[in-house]
Amino acid sequence: MKNTFYVSCPIDTYSGYGARSRDFVKALIKSEKYDVKILPQRWGGTPFGFIKDHHKEWGFLNSHILNLPNNQLDQQPDIWCQVTVPNEFQKVGKYNIGLTAGIETTACAHQWIEGCNRMDLILTSSNHSKEVFERTSYNGKNQQTGQEVTIKLTTPCKVLIEGADLDVYKDINTKDIQNQELFNKINSIPESFAYLFVGHWMKGQLGEDRKNVGLLIKAFYELFKNKKKKPALILKMSGAGSSYMDRYEMQKRIQSIRNSVPASQLPSIYLLHGEFNDSEINELYNHPKVKSMVSLTKGEGFGRPLLEFSLTNKPVIATNWSGHTDFLKKDFTQLMGGKLTKIHQSAQQKDMLIEGSEWFSVDHSEIGRCLVDVFKNYKEYKVKGKRQGYYSRSNFSFSKMEEQLDEILTNNLPNFPEQVTLSLPQFDSKPALPKLKKV
């Protein structure tokens, strides 16, 4: 009999954690070693309905999804896994796993460490996140005894990579592109060279939001203003959702920055807003006018879009710190320098991006150097992009993640007691009674 493996996760959401959940559960099901059950959860304000609405290829998960009132379990799972941020981890099963992308800064809140210590095993996406968990500690007092205590990670922590689906994310020919509407829209822009950014524009003033979108827009305008020959910047971007109000808010923020840059001519920035499926995203990456991905991110637990884009063999420009440096190699990509700075108050989030912790602030001169050099010397960087693509395919595929997960579980899961059938000796239904002697 297979051990029950319950996974509580945002399986049906349009989010990075949703993608991570689907891959994790798919790997468990493919192993055929466990009786896998899914408890679907929401993920912040991100839209729900990923599987049902536009991604029928994930329909096989539906038979594993439990619809329980208030998620009340009818039995204790052998293995319990939560895919979420660590302060939400709860010990439910006989063996308990916390799966998290981790942290984008230099320290995590004590609630995260306490949450990790409630579990039997922590799986995180990058060496950066693992090191932060293991390095963070707090001194405090036991509220009941008054004794001084140190809060630090005591649960084993392992890195489980986020592997890309090589059947979806790959270099394709223009003739293989299916979404002609998207292709034609990008083809209609006058520029032949476009940088691409993919991500959310999050909380924080200019230069302080985690993905650093505001600074990217500002720097792009300043770098290429009044230039006769200039590239474009495509932003596949949203705030938290895909509503018309969200799109309007993104347009308003871009326009505000544009208005702050005095120039007779400014380069063009194009906004792509709304939900795309994986194949459409890969077609966007492969459009001949999309030449390079750029990210000024201040910190990543992993950085999944950067990995997936690298599989198209096009050059990547990113900051040289945090989770994505596990797979982006300095010899093959443009990794921008900078320094660690305190998280600005405007970007702080309770129990997540905490006061006093640090993340990466890119050197502004590095932005100019990298973007201009890739634009002027693209052939040189295209060769490097191919080398990065080969490295990504060889080391960060879904199958590599499957192998890694199987090895981790094999080496860490306990032997659960097995239910056995009780075998009793057989007796006659009418036992023979001793005969009594006559007296």
Could you give a quick summary of the protein structure above?
By secondary structure, this protein is of the alpha/beta class. The chain is built from twelve helices and 16 strands.
Give the topology, please.
Elements: E1 3-9, H1 16-31, E2 34-40, H2 50-54, E3 79-83, E4 95-100, H3 110-117, E5 121-124, H4 127-135, E6 137-141, E7 148-152, E8 157-159, H5 180-187, E9 194-200, H6 213-224, E10 232-238, H7 244-259, E11 269-272, H8 278-286, E12 290-295, H9 304-310, E13 316-319, E14 334-336, E15 338-342, E16 358-362, H10 364-376, H11 378-395, H12 398-412
Parallel strand pairs: 1-2, 1-3, 3-4, 4-5, 5-8, 9-10, 9-12, 10-11, 12-13, 13-14
Antiparallel strand pairs: 6-7, 15-16
Description:
The protein is α/β, with parallel strands linked by helices and 439 residues long. The chain has two domains: 3-162 and 398-412, Rossmann fold (3-Layer(aba) Sandwich), CATH 3.40.50; 174-395, 3-Layer(aba) Sandwich (Rossmann fold). It is built from twelve helices and 16 strands. The protein has a six-stranded parallel beta sheet, with helices on both faces. Strands 11-10-9-12-13-14 form a six-stranded parallel beta sheet, sandwiched between helices. It has a two-stranded antiparallel sheet with strand order 6-7. β1 (3-9), α1 (16-31) and β2 form a beta-alpha-beta unit. α6 packs across α7 (244-259). The longest helix is centred in the last third of the chain and has 18 residues, at 378-395. The mean pLDDT is 93.
Main attributes of the structure:
alpha/beta, Rossmann fold, 6-stranded parallel β-sheet, 12 helices, 19% strand, globular
